[in-house]
């Protein structure tokens, strides 16, 4: 009788957990409904436990012009999540004896400054000191044009190193472009083929591949930015991001990949432990993604108007990912809400109340602002849709008024507090504060 009683109590506790989670998932449904009805987010989300999908949602359009709705099979460009695939392939090469973490890169790229000091490990962990070529001021002038290996290596090698190898860490897409070519050299096949044969086929990722020109007829999403409606973004030519950001996928496939990675079905435990060892904020193709007291790992991505996140909580065997082709909110807020729903923790639903600013008042904020704290200048302009901001070398984005003299760009967590009388502005982002003055 005692055993039966304990079993009954355990069953009832389990049922209560499921009911609480169901209520939270209904609340999560409400969040996505609010996002869609307010034109705040388009994309797909999925969460899986131990390989089984427990929640998924898609909203918005893969193609707004043709009113092609997104669904759970829609494929998105996932940007820098590709780096997790590249890192995995690199550890495969190491396990096969084709590379080592301490091998320097001068035999591959003698033209790169400090090539004799830079190792495979430095590339993986962003400790090479190699300039990030996508930060070039003219990048947006040629990112839609195809580039050859020779051209890309030249674009990377023509810039001076920004720090001594292994002295610190700083994110650089150039590292993973070079890793792409190194993998092709040692495996003697294309990066596209490597992703397909070593990851996609073994894991049966039917909607994951290295992207080409977007084909909406094959349920591939276009990407957008929002002014007064969703405006289509230009496409980066996928000969440029390669192993740094050329992958297309779905949240379901991404969850299957990261679950297999942490289940040691792709690389050995020792390799995985090395991959997720964090130094100066960086692992090797992976970041930490904490949630309350839980330690998670993953990566985010962004390319054109696409943004994405992929994460995994090893102790809970929980994978979670989102892919977006149009966003006016911070993806991290969506992810936190989704995890809160799963673990039955509280989260708030947004209201998106707007603050009305008359068009004639917007002229008070127009100008080019500079700061003594950082070299990034910000140009504020007025358009028919409102106030636009553009940082040096970056695309413009629409600011949203939230209170008097205060505007935000939620997608990037940017807040700008203007003081028209002193022609100044305070920029807040990621916990940092920068003082700007109009030139």
From TrEMBL:
Record-linked InterPro entries: AmpC-like (IPR050491), Beta-lactam-related (IPR001466), Beta-lactam/transpept-like (IPR012338)
Top-level taxon of origin: Bacteria
Keywords, sorted A to Z: Hydrolase, Signal
Gene3D superfamilies, per database record: DD-peptidase/beta-lactamase superfamily (3.40.710.10)
Pfam families in the cross-refs: Beta-lactamase
GO terms for MF: hydrolase activity
Keyword Hydrolase set for record: yes
Beta-lactamase-related domain sequence ranges: 46-330
Signal peptide stretch: 1-20
Record-given protein name: Class A beta-lactamase-related serine hydrolase
Origin species: Euzebyella marina
